Amino acid sequence: MESGRRAELGEFLRSRRARLRPEELGLPEFGGRRRVPGLRREELALLAGVSVDHYVRLEQGRSLHFSAEVLDAVARALRLDAAERDHLHRLARPDPATAPGAADRRPPRSGIYRLLSSIHDVPAYLVDRNTTVLAWNPLAAALITDFGALPPERRNLARLNFLDEGVRRLYADWPARARDLVGFLRLDAGHRPADPSTAALIEELSAASAEFRQLWAEHQVKDKRHGRYLYRHPLVGELELAYETLRLPDDPGLALVVHAADEGSASHTALQLLATWTGRR
Fold first, then answer.
1. Inter-axis angle of helices 210-217 and 174-189, nearest 10
2. Can you say how many angstroms the Cα of residue 187 is from the centroid of all Cα atoms in its chain?
3. What are the tens digits of pLDDT across the range 190-221?
4. Sign of CA dihedral 158, 253, 256, 110
5. Tens digits of residue pLDDT in 139-166
6. Among 71-75, 115-119, 225-229, 251-255, where is mean pLDDT lowest?
7. What is the C-alpha separation between 82 and 238, in angstroms, rounded?
8. Of residues 212, 216, 129, the one with CA closest to residue 164
9. Using CA of residue 242, residue 237, residue 184, residue 40, what is the dihedral sign?
């Protein structure tokens, strides 16, 4: 197991242990003063039904073949949700097919661009694993930012949300948006922990944003493919928009994100106004 994945696995497991308390789980005290918050390794091993040595090997990422049953037992003991459990499996039982390679960098099919260009009435854009926006329709640019005016390396949602004050002000609940983005990045980084483009993005944001550093250190993972955000747009005011994230079946590293407002709502009217303004540009 490469060092990057080994370090990520250990940090993830320690962060999950830290959020649990033995008294909440009915565990006996092992004695001694606690030096760290949360469960000790011995307590976690007891809950999971594995030996302490076996769990220590897992947390240290040693080159041991851990079974899916052991990982599921650890996931249950740590009370992981589905996204966290899958993340644990990817880190502890890496799939050689997920190593970064040419397949990750191939351009999207022309049919995806045609599909995106056919969407006129709602904001839509195509994004990769690193939240880089590869393509967008005019309404997405009107809602978020003029992607076409940015150099390609700056067309990244995580970078824009943490480093661009204009984009940041769009979100009525920016902390929730920030957590969603970091959780998404952390989840997808688990698919390809050795990907240099992901490492470069995380390094850049960690150096530039204390808020990003804090959120990244929490090791939260999210597979949030749908939800709602309240926008405060400088032209049309507040818009509450739902979004759906559609993974492409033959290229899961890409996703089409589409926003929409509830029919007949004030947000729907505001979105129509924004579309009208966009069409007149």
1. 60
2. 5
3. 777 667 888 899 999 999 999 999 999 998 88
4. positive
5. 999 999 999 999 998 999 999 999 999 9
6. 251-255
7. 33
8. 212
9. negative
At 68, which amino acid appears?
A: A
Q: How far apart are CA 100 and CA 196, in angstroms?
A: 8
Cα gap 222→183, rounded to integer Å: 5
Q: Would you mind telling me the total number of residues written for the chain in this entry?
A: 281
Q: How many CA atoms lie within 13 A of 113 on its CB side?
A: 6
Burial of 224 from C-beta contacts in 10 A (0-12 / 13-18 / 19+): middle
Q: How far apart are CA 182 and CA 185, in angstroms?
A: 5
Both tokens of residue 52? 């302490």
